[in-house]
Amino acid sequence: MKPVVLNKLDQADRAILNIIQTRFPLVSRPYAAVAAEVDLSEAEVLTRVDALKDAGIIRRIGGIFASDKLGFSSTLVALKVAAEKLETVALAVSAYPGVTHNYERAHEFNLWFTLVSRTEAELEQILNEIMCLDGVLKLRNLPALKLFKIGVNFDLAEEEPCC
Q1: What backbone torsions phi and psi does residue 78 show, to the nearest 5 degrees?
Q2: Architecture per CATH, 6-54
Q3: Is 0.70 surpassed by the pTM of this model?
Q4: Which DSSP category does 118 fall into?
Q5: pLDDT lower than 50: segments of the chain
Q6: 67-142: CATH class
Q7: Per-residue pLDDT tens for 117-130?
Q8: 3-state secondary structure of 113
Q9: Angle 138-139-142 (CA atoms, 0-180°, nearest 5)?
Q10: I want to staple 123 with a disulfide (CB 3.0 to 4.6 A). Which of 23, 36, 89, 117 is the partner?
């Protein structure tokens, strides 16, 4: 997948992205509602959203929930993985249903992911399983003590970056 340069997006794409990332319509036909707002057809909005997904601009569309408020346990995990096993370990980690993010890092701890589970005991069980994966050398469980960031929205209204 080729990276897309933001200045290649037209105003309609930018408007669609601004709407769906900050105030996705909670109606039976959300893309029709977006279309009405940006003065396009529902089919055109769907085509543009599909193209933005294909280009990697949109990773996923879905709700974001406060897992702790729903009674779940979550943590950030740092793994030190043998370089030759990194991809295999990353795929194994990503196969767990509670893994929401999984990134390679240029660091001694070269694989970082977030994990959400129903209970603290289940979280510990999963971490123990992951620690036993072939290639995992060290694991650091880094649970949040206090949440400071609640979301990220990119204002795409401007043609050029402001800074």
Answers
A1: -115, 130
A2: Orthogonal Bundle (1.10)
A3: no
A4: S
A5: 1-4, 161-163
A6: alpha beta
A7: 999 999 999 999 99
A8: strand
A9: 145
A10: 117
